[in-house]
Amino acid sequence: MSIDNSTVKKVASLARIEIKSDEEDTLIKELNNIILWVDELQKVNTDKVDPMLSVFNESMPMRQDIAKSNYSNKLIMKNSPKSNSGFFVVPKVVE
């Protein structure tokens, strides 16, 4: 797969970033280099490698998950310009 101008413009649109026309060539080269690097990783033989959840194989000490707060709900709600039933009221951000 090769990245071209239309792909760069589409990715920029999806990411909601503005790119200038003089930046397109640089981005095309960088994205193509990333794809080549990923293709190199695909060639690595991992047949005898066990799947891992983490690179850290030792067990981690776990602490008790105890919920505690130094602040009351009433004190926290004092910081809110608007609240309803103990919750912050904020403007809708999804169209």
What does this structure look like?
40% of the residues lie in helices and 4% in strands. The two termini are 34 Å apart. The chain has helices at 5-15, 21-42, 73-77; strands at residues 83-84, 87-88. It has three helices and two strands; from the N terminus they run H-H-H-E-E. The longest helix has 22 residues, at 21-42. It is mainly alpha-helical. It has a domain at 5-42.
Total number of beta strands: 2
Distance between the termini: 34 Å
Largest sheet: 2 strands, antiparallel
- How much of the sequence lies in strands comes to under 5%
- Count of helix runs: 3
Helix content: 40-55%
Mean pLDDT across the residues is 88
Structural class by secondary-structure content? mainly alpha
* General form: flat
> What is the string of SSEs from the N terminus onward?
HHHEE
Give Rg in angstroms. 25 Å
Strand order of the largest sheet: 1-2
